[in-house]
Design brief:
It is built from 14 helices and 19 strands. About 50% of the residues are buried. The protein is an alpha/beta fold. It has two domains: about 110 residues, Roll (Urease, subunit C, domain 1); about 290 residues, TIM Barrel (Alpha-Beta Barrel). A hairpin with a 2-residue loop joins strand 18 and strand 19. The protein binds zinc ion.
């Protein structure tokens, strides 16, 4: 069955099997030459600085120049007067395969919580379900101003399932890392399918530069989350060693008892490791993380839904210790994609926990949601700031909307006032994916319809057993 969605439908009919056609971007908007004119520019680059009113020139997907006024006669013009021009949000850990499960989930009924539902339905996913789910999540991500995501895919039953997720990422035109993880229920005493990972690497890497690959590890040590798997240090050594032999980075959740000292004693920590959920670290562990160059991704909204016993978001402690931190969505089953909300949550929780003892500015939070994410994913030379030579991953945020106007400091407004509906324009790798708050090429209704149908069929398959 064809999956409609992007105008022209390119790449949407091959719902299983390895990638056969070119890795081009099909019917995505062309990368052109344009000037964003008269914007409030927040570059997140100290050498470039900010402008109360400035221009930004883009050609063939790259930022050519940022200045008070730019003359480029051949470039088309985007009038950005009254809009904030800033880097697109860089998301660093998101289980996109669960995006279509919203109707199945409830926050007030433990039986229908995220883990029981994803565990019951996950093993029935076809490659097509993965494709529809990832595309649905990314459509919301783009509409909320994300231009980079880290697709944390810990339910990959075969390379065909991985291929479907990568096709969805490519078809949506965003920048991202796809991290390949073992299917749920994979035996804890066996390393994941490293041959499948190598096969996907051969098929997809390198590409046009927008997509990279990584490996999702199950939790290490005596963890409490049996549903997601817990492996011994010996299995981690083999699994992580396999990923490193391919030159791939590693990501792992640290929900429950902390594995940091265990991993360090085994010599497994390094700058190619990203941990997720900084809730229960000790001062000694944070020292280890800084020394080893490990980064930590916090998912403020999801982490705030956990019981107090799960720990508190340790942003202040991580910043004080000099550990690399980034921001993530995690999932969208029980809340939506809203980077402004994520920044606000972090800000409020920080003030609630530590007050002004550890200074945290609105600008630092915007950096956390953009440049710091690019640092975490190892792609800061390509994205995360409005720097000439970097790729054009840019958003425009309206400041005249009723929840923003009249605006004072733009960083303050982004953190405390803005909402996804204020995101007017989204540009990823020089392609204008949204303009005037609408998709330029994507058929949003078809994306929702395909995801809804996929979920109905998935539920029916699960009932049959
Ligand atoms: Zn997660």
């Amino acid at each position: 069955m064809a999956i409609a969605g992007i105008a022209g439908g390119a790449g949407c009919t091959n719902t299983g099997g390895p990638q056969r056609e070119s890795h081009g971007t099909g019917a995505l908007p062309e990368r052109g030459e344009f000037i964003i004119r008269g914007a409030i520019i927040l570059s997140l680059d100290a050498a470039v600085g900010d402008f109360a009113s400035g221009d930004l020139h883009v050609r063939n997907g790259a930022i050519v120049a940022v200045a008070k006024a730019i003359d480029a006669p051949r470039a088309s013009v985007i009038d950005a007067k009254g809009m904030i021009c800033m880097p697109g949000f860089v998301e660093t850990h998101w289980h996109l395969w669960t995006s279509l499960l919203r109707p199945m989930l409830r926050t007030d009924d433990a039986q229908r919580g995220y883990f029981p539902v994803t565990n019951a339905l996950g093993r029935h996913y076809t490659p097509r379900d993965h494709y529809c789910s990832v595309r649905l999540g990314l459509a919301e991500g783009i509409s909320a101003g994300a231009t980079t995501v880290h697709n944390w895919s810990h339910n990959i039953a075969s390379p065909d399932h991985a291929d479907a997720e990568l096709r969805a990422m490519r078809d949506m035109g965003m920048r991202g890392r796809f991290s390949y993880g073992p299917v749920q229920g994979w035996p804890n005493d066996r390393p994941m399918d490293l041959e499948g990972l190598a096969k996907i690497q051969k098929q997809w890497m390198p590409n046009d530069g927008t997509l990279t690959l990584g490996m999702c590890s199950r939790n290490v040590g005596d963890g409490t989350n049996a549903l997601r798997g817990n492996i011994s240090v010996d299995i981690a050594r083999r699994e992580w060693g396999g990923a490193r032999a391919l030159g791939l980075p590693i990501t792992m959740h640290t929900s429950g008892p902390s594995p940091i000292t265990l991993l360090d004693k085994a010599g497994l920590l390094g700058p190619d490791v990203q941990l997720v959920h900084p809730l229960l670290t000790t001062a000694e562990e944070r020292r280890i993380l800084r020394e080893r160059g490990v980064s930590y991704s916090t998912s403020p909204v999801g982490e705030s839904q956990r019981p107090a016993s799960a720990g508190e978001i340790q942003l202040a402690e991580l910043l004080e210790a000099g550990v690399k931190v980034s921001m993530s969505v995690d999932l969208t089953g029980t809340y939506n994609v809203d980077f402004f909300q994520c920044m606000r949550f972090l800000y409020h929780l920080h003030r609630h926990r530590v007050g002004r003892r550890v200074p945290l500015t609105a600008k630092r939070l915007v950096q956390l949601a953009t440049l710091d994410g690019a640092v975490d994913l190892g792609i800061a030379r390509h994205t995360g700031s409005l720097t000439p030579g970097k790729r054009a991953d840019i958003i425009l945020v309206r400041t005249g909307d009723i929840n923003m106007a009249p605006m004072g400091d733009p960083y303050e407004a982004l953190v405390n006032l803005a909402q996804p509906r204020n995101v007017d324009t989204v540009i990823a790798d020089g392609r204008i994916l949204r303009r005037g708050g609408r998709f330029t090429a994507l058929d949003h209704a078809a994306v929702v319809k395909d995801a809804t149908m996929a979920l109905a069929e998935l539920s029916a398959r699960a009932k049959r057993g």
